[in-house]
Amino acid sequence: MSESITLIKEEVLTLGRLVETTVYEVTRLLKGDKRADLSLVERQEAEINDLCLEIEEKCVDLLVERDTANGAREIRALVSIPLIAAKLERLADHANRVARFANWAIEDQIEIPEELPRMAASVYHMVQELLLCFLTDSPSKAKEILASDSNVDYLHDLLSKRLLSDLGEQDSAGAQMKAQFLFCGRFLERMGDACTSIAKRVYFLSTGERIGKGGH
Bigger pLDDT: 176 or 121? Predict the structure, then answer.
């Protein structure tokens, strides 16, 4: 059983690296980097979805054989790993939406608010730390990730206040553009939330204890 779980965890890391690449390309797109590859993001979407389902099915199969489980930690792993994979898949879905908008903004030479690439860079760092956290089963690293989400929340609040301050004074086209920026900010904020959810699940997997967003 332990060997089977180790192999599944390796597949989760593969899934996580695909998501990491997706978020990296999103960050490049939001920075206006014309070398960023939207087609890579789109190609990886199906691969991420398929791998997420495959991981879930393998965990279910092992749970059906639960009489061979060796302890509570293995049961926690089999319950937690599909949830972690699903959160990674959802994070990638949000990233795809932001990537398409960013690519459109580049093509139309629209200036992207500076908060958006900064948010994406913060989420990218969180994903990197998540993969390390998952690989090492580190409760302390999970707490660090929870704390780092405050920067994403701060930038989201900053962006929202700035864009909403004069929204009513904009013409129709300008108001619609600001609304698109707000949607992107919301998706990036949800990506940060997905990272914290995964960190809390890794903490539970490792310790058997629950942890709040603030690390308590």
Answer: 121
Q: Which CATH number belongs to the domain containing residue 46 in this structure?
A: 1.20.58.220
State phi, psi for 181 to the nearest 5 degrees: -65, -40
Q: Name the domain count of the chain.
A: 1
Composition of the chain by helix, strand, coil, percent to 5:
85, 0, 15
Give the domain extent around 104. 2-207
Q: Which amino acid is residue 101, in one-letter code?
A: F
Number of Cβ within a 10 Å radius of residue 146 = 22
Q: From CA 197, how far away is CA 201, in angstroms rounded? A: 6
**How far is it, in rounded angstroms, from Cα 69 to Cα 157?**
46
CB-neighbour burial class of residue 6 (10 A; exposed 0-12, middle 13-18, buried 19+): exposed
| Rounded Cα–Cα distance for residues 137 and 155 (Å) | 29
213 within domain boundaries:
no
pTM: 0.89
Per-residue model confidence as pLDDT tens digits over 195-208? 999 999 999 999 99
